[in-house]
Structure formats: C-alpha cells, structure tokens
Structures
1.
Amino acid sequence: MAELKRRTLKDLLGNSVTRYSERPALSMVNSRPITYKELGEQAETLSRILHKRGITAGDRVAILSENNPNWGISFFAITTIGAVAVPILPDFHLNEVQHILRHSGSKAIFISQKQFNKLEEFNSESLATVFLIEDFSIIPPETTLEKLRNILKDGASEYNKLKEAALKMVGLMMSEVQENDLAVINYTSGTTGHSKGVMLSHKNLVFDALATLKIQPIKHTDRLLSILPLSHSYEGTIGFLIPMLCGACVYYLDKPPVAKVLLPAMQTVKPTMMLTVPLIMEKLYKVKILPKFTHSLLMRSLFGIPLLRRFFHRMAARKVYNQFGGALHFYGIGGALLSPEVELFLREGKFPYAIGYGLTETSPLIAGSSPDKTRYRSTGIVLPGVEVKIENPDPKTGEGEIIVRGDNVMIGYYKDPERTAKVLSPDGWFKTGDLGILDKNGYLYIKGRLKNVIVGPSGENIYPEQIESLINRVDYVLESLVYLSQKLLIAKVHLNYEELDREFQGKKLTETQISSIISDKLENLRQSINSNISAYSRIHKMVEQPEPFEKTPTKKIKRYLYIH
C-alpha cells in the first residue's frame, strides 16, 4: 500500500484504482466481482450524475440500503466530490429514517427496493432526488412501492441514458476535497435511544484506517465476508475503507446472516478475514458447542479438568474454523464486550480472534490487536498516533473514564453544539463514557459504561455488565440485563430454550410444571450468583425474559427499553 499524499477518501480511491486496477474489489457471494478499475469508473460516472442533479460540495446525500457493491460505489461517488454521505441503518424505523433525512437536510438519497416503503408519504423540501441503488435509476419522489415495480423494468436503460449524458460533461467544476472537510454524518443507534449525528471528516476516517493497518495488516489477496451493516462505522471503516485501501476484495450476502445462509457463503468465499460482534460466537458456543461438553455427568467432570478442557476446546475450535471456510487468519470481534468463557474457548482453541474497541465518534477504532498479540479480557493496544487517558481513576482499582485524543476524533455532533461541548473538550479530548483500565504495556481493559453504573446503598459502584457476565456463563442462559428498580437490583434473563428442551425431552410435563421448574432454576441461579458477589451488589429478584432483548446493530441490548 502506497503512502497517500493526502488523507481524503478521493485520494484513497484514486490510489487503489491505480495500484489494483484489475484486482477484484466488491462482490455479492456467487457473483462476479467488480474490479477496482470498474469501481473507480462507476463512482466517477455517478459523481457526474449527482453533479448534474445539483449536488455540490457540502450537500448531504443519504444511503439507505442493505450491503451490496452499489453501496460502496454510491459512498465514493458522494464523498469524492466533496458532498457528505449520510449512511442510514436499514434497521431504523421509518420515523427515525424520516427524522434523519429532515435533520441532515439530505438533497438526495440512494435507497434499496426493500427500504423504499420508508419514503412513502415522506414530504421534504430538501430531498429532490431519489436513486434506486439496485441500478441507480432516478425515481420520482411521489412514487409508491407499487409503481416502483413497474419502473424497475426500465431502470437499467434509464441509468444508461444518464450515464451517456454524464460522460459528455467535461468537468465537475467542484472544489478540491480537503482533509478536514466533512465526509460523513453517521447517525448512531445507541443503547439510550437517542440518535446523534456524528460528523466525521476525511482525515478522521483515513487516519483511523491507516492507524489500524499498523496493528493488523491487510493484503491485496485477502477476502472479507461482510455480515455487519455498512451504515455502521465499525463495518464502514474497518470492513470497507481498509480493504479498499489495500486492494482486498469484500463479499456481501443477499440475505440476513443466519446459519443456513452464512455457512454456505463461507464455504464459497473461504474468507481470510471477518468482522463480527460477540453475539455470533457466543450463541454458537452456548447452543452448539457447550452442550456437547455438559450433556452428561461424565463429560461435565472431564470438561472441568483444565488439560482436557483445552483439548476439547481445540477440537471444537478446529471444527468451527473449517466450517468458516478454513482460511481465516483474522476474526475480529467488536461492538460489545465478549463473554469471558467464549474468549477462553477461542483462546484455548487457538482460533485466530482479535478484539477491538471504539465508538462512532472515534471513526471508530481506538484500540485493537492482531490475533497473535491478544491479551485475555483486553481490547488490545491503543492505536499508534492516538492518545488515551484514564480520567479520575479509582485509587483502589485504577478504573476511570476512558478519554481519547487524536485525528480519529469526530468534528462534533451535527446541529448540536451543546451535546458536543459535553463530550469534547476545547483541547480535543473526547469523553467516551466507558470505564476502563490501561496497563503499563498499553493494553486497554473495558469495565462497562459509566452511565450504566449503579450506586449501591452506601455509595458503592455496581457494574451491571460484570454481574450479567456471571449470569450469562450458565449454560441455560443466553443473555441477561441487570438494573435498579425501587432501590432493588433486578435481573431479566433470556434462557437458552434449546438447552431446556433437551432437558425436558421425554418428560410429560404440563405448562404449569415447566413454569415452576423455570422459576426454581432462576431462584437457584440468583442464590448462586449472590454467593459469589459482594453483599451490596446482590440480586433481589430474577425475572424470565421470554423473547430475546432488542438490540442495536452491534448487538448491544437497548437497555432503555427494559429499565423503568
């Protein structure tokens, strides 16, 4: 990878198109990849069409679509002419989508057919152009979903006409893109329910990409299978911009990444690198792997012997590795805390995992590592060129709020100077809201969210994530949520019903009996957890959560929905 003259997305794309012209760049699984040359040509053509539609430097253009190569083409078409991309998460409700379009003042949008209903009955003075992302045809604003199906038949020919007209334009007459120019407004979907428009510059994104490569290189021969939304900064920077910077190829799924879709795709692509969230491996371990080691008293006894446990983990991890295509050298995990027992499985199984830590506001990565340099329970080392401090550390534990300064830190929150001032100091330090420890070797350890800390009866700090981690270790528990209600600690628990079904199999039990058994299990679990934690953090009551908790795109529980 050559050194970029300037840290802009235009320079990033131009460098890769020159260096990796005939290399594959982006593809759907089981389709022909577009090359870097084709990526550059299509992005330039689309830029010309945007310019013809009145889009100029600083104008906001939204992208609302599932992952596909045209998402990347749209992104570069927008940002390389100095316009501002506004990626919108496909999981957002139509009310949130329409709020973002209004708040950002987007003048155009690239939208997929699946998302098109979120534009129906949407009125905005600013939104003048709607592109269907499947073929880049322009859709009249008043179009309904029913009318869209007829338009789709002629979409390709319409785009070709636009393409021919655009190519006749001599120049774009656009101002040169500068490093500090706004490139992206990323609206977050957090655990608090308040969406914020994070402003990231070209320098923010390209700096973070270059810094990440210093701890985990990517080669032009690497293949990535993308399973997280490109609209999220985690996938957007690490899973898209970094591979594009290095000439690698990224493959996308045309369906949600459930096992029956994901496993065949892995065998087809044989990815060398993947980015994931903890829930994927945690669910696999809890539902498919752990039951094999605990289904009988003998196996549980053998699994309890460290030497044999490591052997079992190694065998199971090798099977998972082969199921994932057998070519992985990097399996990145981020977005939330990974459970200790699953990390132990990956570590003892010699699976090539690595954990990273970051936020949308930091473009996103702050710390991470390569698989050969991981430390148990750590999110890795701080990126080169980034400063991290622990503010107001506890004298006993060393825990304090993680604050960050560097070229990866956002410009601020869009149209929200008050909220910006609360988290961003005049000298550039960003308050993450996360609690952590930084050891003498530069490894960062995350302890939980500052806003989630519960103050005990005598002023003690209670970290709900730590209690949840203990609860989630139990084989018949999938996930949990600890919160304070009327000065008492409550735990909502979503059970592993597949495990319980195996336990109940062959027994003729009534619904009342099953309910009674589950209640007894929860009470026994409560007592067991309380016997292993401090008195001030003991759980008063455990409540069954029948359905999975609603989550953010990175699979963190939306706590605000369950805490009353």
2.
Amino acid sequence: MDMRNVMLRPASGARSLAFLIEVAVLALALARPARADQPEAPPASYALIVGSNAAGSGQQELRYAERDATALAAVLREAGRYPGAQLVVALHPGRAELLAALASLRERLQAGAARGEQAQLIFYYSGHARADAITLGREELPLAELRQQILRLPSTLTVVIVDACQSGAFSRIKGAEATADFSFNSVARLNTAGMAVMASSTANELSQESDELASSYFTHNLLLALRGAGDANQDGQVSLDEAYRYTYNRTLTGTAATAVGAQHATLETALKGKGDVVLTRPTLASSQLVVPARIAGRLFIQHRPSGSVLAELDKAPGAPVRLAMPSGAYKVLLRQGDEIRECDVTLAEQSTVTFDVALCRPATLDEGSIKGGGPPAAPWGLELSLGVLQGRDDSYVSVMRQFGFNQFGGNVWLGLSHQISLTATRALDRHFALTLDLLELDAENRSRSGGLDGDDASFGWSSYGLGAGLRGARPVLRGHLVPYAQVSAGPALAFTTWSDATGTYRQTSFGYYLGAKVGAAYMPWRSLGLLVQAGYYYAPIIKDNIGDTHDSGGFGAQLGTRWVF
C-alpha cells in the first residue's frame, strides 16, 4: 500500500477522527518543552588555579607546586578550551591575594547567573598544607574558611582538586602528617551537593613529588589524563571519572617503588543528577600527537627546549591515543621490552602529527630524565673559569721587599694575579657531585734595580694544584639556577725563576693545597650555562733558604662557563 495515498486521502468517520487525534498528539509532542533529563547546553567554564612553593614555619620550599599550577592552566586552555578571561592563575599568593581572587571570581559568577548562565568551576590548589589549613608562606588559610569561600561561589557544579604537599627527600613528602593528611580532610570537609573533590592521597598516606618528572606524581598523571590519555571510551572527551581512574592507576604505579610507598588518589562526589562532568576535550586542541592503535610499549615524551617530561604513557595495542600538546619540538622514546627507539617530533600550530615508529632510531634510555627507571644518570660537567687572586703577603714576600724586590710586574695588577681553573664534575645525584680541579694558584714576577752588589735581578714564581673534591648543590628555579659549595684538596707544584747578570736559575717545589669555594651556575640551556664563584686556597709550597714558606693561595673570584653532557 502506498503511504502517500493513505496520508493524502480525504478522511471520513472513525478513520478521520483517529487521524485528527494522531495529528494532535504529534503536534503536542513537538511543542512540549524538552525533558529535564535531556542534554543541556555545555556550561560556561571557569577555573581558579593556585600554586605556591612558599614554605611556612618548619617547612622547606617546594620546587614544583607553581610549575604544576601553570601546567594545569595550559592544559585547560589547550584541551579544555577555557577562555583566557575565565581562567585565573594565582602563583605564590598571600592570604589576602587568594581571598581577593575568590571574591572577584564570585562577582563574575554572580553576573553570569543573573543572565541564566550555567557555570562549571575547577578550583585547584598545589602547595604546602597542615591538617586543617593550607599554607601560603608565613600565612595560613583555615580549611573551614576556604570551604565557605568555595561554597559561596554560585557555580552549577564545582570540581575541587587538592595536591597539598610538604617537602621531603628524593620523593618529597607532601601533606602535613601521616596521621592527619590534608588530602583526606579536604574530602571530608569540602564535599557537598554539587561538588566533587579529587585529592592526591588517602588519610594514611603521604603524597610525593618526583625530581625526574619535575612535578608531583599526582598532578603529572592528572595532566596526562586531561591531555587525552584518560579518554577511555575514545569519545574525544575526558570526564571527571575518566581523569580520576587514569590518575589513580598511574600514581599508584609510579609511587609503588618509592621510599615513601604507594600513594592512592581519592575522589568523592555529590553531583546528584549532574551526569558525566567533562573536564577537557582533547580533540579540539590546536596541536595534537596521535599514537596509532598498533603501537604498544612505554612512551616518554620530553619537551626538548626545557628538558621536562611532558608525558609517560603505557600504550596497549588496539586503540589509538590522542594527546593535546603545545606546539614545539619533542623527543619521544618508545620502549618495547629491551628495545628502545628515539624519535624527533615537531608539532606546529594547528597541526595533528601521527607518531611514526619507522622514523625512529635505536637509542639508549636516559634514566636521568625518566621516572620509574631507577636512579638518575650521573652526567658529566666541565667548567672553565677565569678570574683574579689576591695573593698572601706573608713573611716570604716581606723578606723579598727587604732585598729590594718591590716592583710588581708580569701578570700582577693592583696586587691581583690572574687565575685560571678547569673543573670536571661527576654527579652522584641531584645534590652531590665529585670534582676534579686543575687550577692556577698563584703567579707573580718581581724585580729590583741595583742592590748590595749593584746588579739588577728578577724573581718570579707560578703555582698549580690538582685536587679532588666534593660539591653540594641546591638547584632552584626549576634547575636553571644551581648554587653550590665545594671543598677540595690535592698535590701542588711551584716553579721559581731567578735571573741576574750571572744567568737564570730555576727550581721546582712540591707541596699540597686545600681549597673551598662557593658559587652559582645559571643554566638557561640544558647543556650550557654560566657560573660565578669565589674561593679561598691554602698552598704552602715555596720555601727560601732561611726557613720562610710562601703560601701560594689566597682569596679568588672567577667567572666562567659550564657544559653538561
């Protein structure tokens, strides 16, 4: 039967009435407002990202909290498409600054609510904390007050992410005490209707940082999840649940073998009727790296200019992984069993690049920049420095003046002699290194005109040392500035030369030297930097015939350059 004939044929009787009823029902269905459970328009996205490395009383300054906060803000811009005006980053804030940021955010949310805007808010904090307060340097913000401030924000739903930390050793301890961990308290005290709280650890654990990742384990894995590694159902979006599951598993795996022990991220929600909370949409990012489905193994993705590990990914075969990443140059290491391959990948703006193993080359894994592979590698360093030395005016020099050797000459200017040093370093870990110094200790020429015998004469010497030592360093500013202190000792050698009318006479003396110096290396590049240092040296080497000994040491200051390889 042709349905067009049925629909167009004039209706009569009961059939006509039934037709009219069907039309009326259809019209009502089309005019009926959408049901409450139908999808709503995406909410407006806001974020307040707080990071503070500042230490309070009894705490040590953190390294990566502010870096983690900056990285999260970048991911939300790239993969979450958070408008720049609605994403506020507060680094190293005081109590008043944080409260002001919350008040400003509240005003903006109120203005949006007045327009009928549905708003989604992410509040992230990484920094020091005690059991019932977050620490902002010498100030504190009680947790109860923070809770009230967040509850006053008129957002439709709020996601609170807490990575509260306190410094320790290689894997630094984050949180106040094992018995009163802030992460647990944040869930217990902040959770309420319309809010979800993700925390870095449970009540009986301590959160940890990683020097290799230059980040906390928790935030590093959260960032990777938000970039797309957490997109378990491959729908191009990363939900709160997906982000948590990925972060939980990877954080647990990464910390299982640390000295502090396994760390379990926590998530508690009270989002009744909210459905999935979408945090990022990696497929919308301007630059993306796609790892094809067929590839299996562990991938390490390192940003070449900064040297930081952007991603560490265990890839299983069967499904592709799409990562939202900033444009730039990257080194990608693929480890498949005992085989390691290295690729150079460049992401341009508005580009999607597929990782191609065929373009990789065999490589060895640099454990110094990768988490989970054992202790960091011990790189070599080489330093070349040039400066001045203020020589010792001792009894030896005094006797020379008595015999008329008062004029400075040669390489001495204003009482200062030049000093050159070459230092090789072998790092034991991030903070200690063995050193080998070859340095010029002292060099001076003196002359006299006439004398008791009427003859002109000159006398000069030069001293050198070769010493082994130990250096302690405390990298700051993400490793770009490295203050250090060093002690060294070793054999020393001096050459003396006497010249007069009868000829030239040379003599070699042997001794030892002791040295100590402090300095700082500035490393704007990963392998090359500058240094400034000052030191004091003691080197009793040269002796005269009446028992006086000249100390070829003294105070010195130098400028130089440093290579790391």
